[in-house]
Amino acid sequence: MGVRAIAISVLLSGALAASAASAGEACGAPVPAVGTEVHGPVLNVLDGRRLCVALGVTPDQWLEVELPDQGLIRAAAHPDANPRGTLMAATFARNLTCRVIEDAGDHAIAACSLDGRPVGRLAERRRTIETGRDWR
After folding, report:
1. Among the listed residues 52, 122, 118, 124, the one whose alpha carbon sits nearest the alpha carbon of residue 90
2. How many CB atoms are closer than 10 A to CB 16?
């Protein structure tokens, strides 16, 4: 098994641990300073605006991020939308780049992108909304 496969396996093990934890315990990393850029896979989506970016293998190393993207708001207003499902369809298990824009105490407010595209833009796509409709 390669290093990448081992890393994915370890992260997915952490994801299983997080699924057993409550939403408040699922993302336990301290909020980095405003302006800090973090990178990592999304291993938990809490609702239509909040998710956990894994900075390490265990949930206490996952950063809770609230997304300010207006695209998320527009996507949630779609009549077929499941806001959490839409965010899951757009981000789950994908590597995001997030820049912290505000420390909200127990979580970061951050502008996040996937391959250079803002997450809110991805969530606005009809296909993402349709895929997200079936997520729980």
Report:
1. 122
2. 9
CA gap 102, 129 in Å, rounded: 27
R_g of the chain computed on alpha carbons: 14
Percent of the chain with pLDDT strictly greater than 70? 81
- The Cα 122–Cα 136 span in angstroms is 19
Q: Which DSSP category does 110 fall into? A: E
Q: How far, in Å, CA of 72 to CA of 6, rounded?
A: 33
Tokens 């315990």 sit on residue = 25
Whether the Cβ atoms of residue 123 and residue 51 lie closer than 8 Å to each other: no
Question: In angstroms, rounded to a whole number, what is the distance separating the alpha carbons of residues 15 and 108?
Answer: 20
Work out the angle at residue 24's Cα, subtended by the Cα atoms of residues 20 and 28, and round it to the nearest 5 degrees. Answer: 90
Q: What is the mean pLDDT of residues 4-33?
A: 59
3-state secondary structure of 49: coil
Residue 3: pLDDT over 50? no
